[in-house]
Write a structure and sequence with these properties.
Blueprint lengths: L2 H11 L1 E3 L7 H14 L4 E5 L5 E2 L5 E2 L2 E6 L3 H7 L2 H11 L4 E11 L4 E5 L7 E6 L7 E3 L8 H8 L8 E3 L7 E3 L6 E3 L8 E10 L3
Length: 206
């Protein structure tokens, strides 16, 4: 996908597909091994406060349950990938994109994430499944340009709204406008634990 197509897709849909060959197969293996090694040390993230909480940076927090870890060398290598930074810059039109937040999320059966918006500093969030059974994420791209207050008012009583499905692909990264587009993950249905990897970029030129 060329830069023009990336930019048009981002503006129209709030998403950016990373070329399949941008990340070497060997790094995916290292990420999977690292996630398995670090999982016993992951911290529980269990926010039980009901409803949506609007933050000053434009993000929206909500109830969720999973375990998280910031990763180690393999995940840092992914976050520092020039190919990934190039996709981030081409899609968003930003001058200098740098990864500022990344980590693993481990989902056990029943774990979930209610509708929310990401940290306001995240110009683009990339995600991929490290396990094949994670499934799609729900999102509402039609609410992308609403204010935080408008989103909270519309979705306060709907932890899993009726919306579109965002494909979280197995060992293939997709970027999305997570700080503007409300998104969520319904309770994991199945018997196995699943692993998500995320990398958030921001523009340091401003």
């Amino acid at each position: 996908m060329d830069a023009g197509t990336l930019r048009r897709t981002w503006l129209a849909e709030g998403r950016a597909d990373v070329p399949a060959d941008a990340i070497e197969a060997g790094l995916w293996e290292e990420l999977a091994e690292e996630a398995e090694r670090l999982e016993p040390f992951a911290a529980v993230r269990h926010n039980q406060r009901p409803g949506l909480l609007a933050m000053r940076d434009g993000s929206i927090t909500s109830p969720q349950r999973c375990t998280v870890h910031p990763g180690a060398a393999a995940l840092r290598a992914l976050a520092q990938s020039k190919a990934l930074a190039d996709v981030a810059a081409e899609a968003t039109g930003a001058a200098k994109m740098t990864a500022i937040r990344f980590g693993y999320k481990f989902y056990k059966p029943g774990d979930y994430m209610h509708v929310h918006r990401d940290d306001g500093k995240c110009e683009i969030t990339f995600s991929a499944a490290l396990t094949p059974g994670l499934g799609s994420m729900g999102w509402l791209p039609n609410l992308r340009w609403l204010t935080t207050e408008e989103v909270v008012e519309r979705l306060a009583d709907t932890p899993y709204p009726d919306g579109d499905a965002f494909p979280v692909q197995y060992r293939a990264l997709t970027g999305f406008d997570g700080s503007r587009i409300p998104h969520w993950r319904t309770p994991l249905d199945g018997q196995s634990r699943e692993v998500l990897v995320t990398v958030c970029f921001t523009d340091l030129s401003v």
